[in-house]
Amino acid sequence: MSTDSVVLVTGGNRGIGRAIAERFVRDGHRVAVTARSGEGPEGTLTVQADVTDGASLDAAIARIEAELGPVTTVVANAGITRDTLLMRMSDDDFDAVIDTNLGGAFRTVKRAIKSMIKARRGRIILISSVSGLFGVAGQANYSASKAGLVGFARAVTRELGGRGITANVVAPGFIESDMTAELDEATQASYKKQIPAGRYGSAEEVAGVVAWLASDDAAYISGAVIPVDGGLGMGH
């Protein structure tokens, strides 16, 4: 992709999404982020939107394209967790996570591809998780939503691959964040023992893989799952 393409990152106001937006800004792209609240990093256009609300996404993408130009890369990153054991998980806990993480990716990508189809080029990058492939107890809803992104990317690849559009999945493992920083030392040590690399990853390392998938170097890669997990998942 050219270095001045238009990139849309959902949930780009914090965590991995923010690091991804910062990387694309640094690489010279025009970057928009959606957020339910808060602001994206410096140099981005922040648009308030909720990925569970199609009308808010319609309005967000219309504004982004009016101000920055047609979207050529979309990074579906927005997500939530409602962790609890299956026996205690309410229907609402399950539905909300599926609707945001999987339904949100569908709603965003469906709207963003219109410009890509017209241009006959584009990049769709879905942020999954090692949880979706490896499985994590207490995350039946989250694991299911993140695994669903793999099937979604592969179906999209079948539909749009002939139009110069790729669809790939990035599956981060344990990433340094406010959430991992709150864990006590014993818990952190037990998690790190499971990771062959012996450390947590950084959001910037995830962003680097996303930037590469959006580049011309990855033009012949589609329907792939790229783990960024220090070896934790081992191809699962």
Automatic annotation (TrEMBL):
<keyword id="KW-0560">Oxidoreductase</keyword>
<protein>
    <submittedName>
        <fullName>Beta-ketoacyl-ACP reductase</fullName>
    </submittedName>
</protein>
<dbReference type="InterPro" id="IPR036291">
    <property type="entry name" value="NAD(P)-bd_dom_sf"/>
</dbReference>
<dbReference type="Pfam" id="PF13561">
    <property type="entry name" value="adh_short_C2"/>
</dbReference>
<feature type="domain" description="Ketoreductase">
    <location>
        <begin position="5"/>
        <end position="178"/>
    </location>
</feature>
<dbReference type="GO" id="GO:0016491">
    <property type="term" value="F:oxidoreductase activity"/>
</dbReference>
<comment type="similarity">
    <text>Belongs to the short-chain dehydrogenases/reductases (SDR) family.</text>
</comment>
<dbReference type="InterPro" id="IPR002347">
    <property type="entry name" value="SDR_fam"/>
</dbReference>
<dbReference type="InterPro" id="IPR050259">
    <property type="entry name" value="SDR"/>
</dbReference>
<dbReference type="InterPro" id="IPR057326">
    <property type="entry name" value="KR_dom"/>
</dbReference>
